[in-house]
Amino acid sequence: MRFVDEYRDPAAARRAVEEIGIVSGGEHRKFMEVCGGHTHTIYKHGIENVLPENVELVHGPGCPVCVIPMGRVDDAINLAEQPGVIFTSFGDMMRVPGSTSNLLEAKARGADVRMVYSPLDALRIAQANPDRQVVFFAIGFETTAPSTAITLLKAKEAGVTNFSVFCNHVTIVPPIKAILESPDLRLDGFIGPGHVSTVIGNRPYRFLPAQYGKPLVTAGFEPLDILQAILMLVRQLRDGRCEVENQYTRAVRDEGNVRALQILGQVFELRPHFEWRGLGFISHSGLKLSEAFADWDAELRFQVPGVRVADPKACQCGEVLKGVIKPWECKVFGTACTPETPIGTCMVSSEGACAAYYNYGRFTREAAASARIPVRSA
After folding, report:
1. Residue 26 lies in a domain
2. Number of domains comprising the chain
3. Which member of 107, 144, 241, 267 lies 3.0 to 4.6 Å from 140 by CB, making a disulfide possible if both were Cys?
4. DSSP 8-state assignment for residue 353
5. CB atoms within 10 A of CB 299
């Protein structure tokens, strides 16, 4: 970003925090930042520690790695260990634990598992190895799904038949609805995901004020973006308004990326049910390849166990993803579960709330304590 300093100006941040305190009027407000990228910005820059005591942020299911259930990781490992398969994956999925191991451990056992930076890398590997079956582990929300769709279009156009996709793409609206219908969480509003919204726009969120009476402000990822989004939310509540607003106007349009949405509709269709870590099965929340691309669907090409696996009892990733507890309230946080020895996905992913707090939260609290700066208690 050319003008990044403008989005991290301390004086502007102080003014925003002061105005949040004035506008909120001391009434307790709880907002959920849906996106894991927002969570990292909040922890990295200490935003939670400078907000007024009455304004609370909780963390949602917007980390694509964190929401993949353990059974789907086991399915990925099963595919990777099939004879003649080259299994390709983004790096942040390599250490996500299944029921007994992860993809890196499968690689150590002899599976040909390779890290890629895009699905196009996986397609090039397939073209370079025509005698091998290459499978791409597709994950992510509507942010990354277009790149998978483009790759499948190219594979079909080029007639590459030794390439397939193990599809785990998910959509953002159904889990928000599931959270709103959860009996153990009360929210006053949402900080909407910036990256997803560059694709889908703001229109899909209109159900929030219409059906649930909750405001949402789509936000960017710099500290001032998030502070401005919080200010916009408390202003709505003060004024008795309930709307979908767009703070991230430099990147998000109401209609989204029309071309990307067209490609998604061409390549994917909704699954009747898809399991989410911590949220269970949510109807029409996952994507699968459409019938036109069935020949490139790894779940049809190979026998995939598809067994549902319960999370370890000690791991509370599900509660963290639903915003019911904060990362440090998990019993194994920072002891048995660390980035080096993760038990749950929230500690593995670069966008996971547990990893964010482990990497930044402790430091900010220790630094504040040594400088005798008052911070909010956990």
Report:
1. yes
2. 1
3. 144
4. H
5. 17
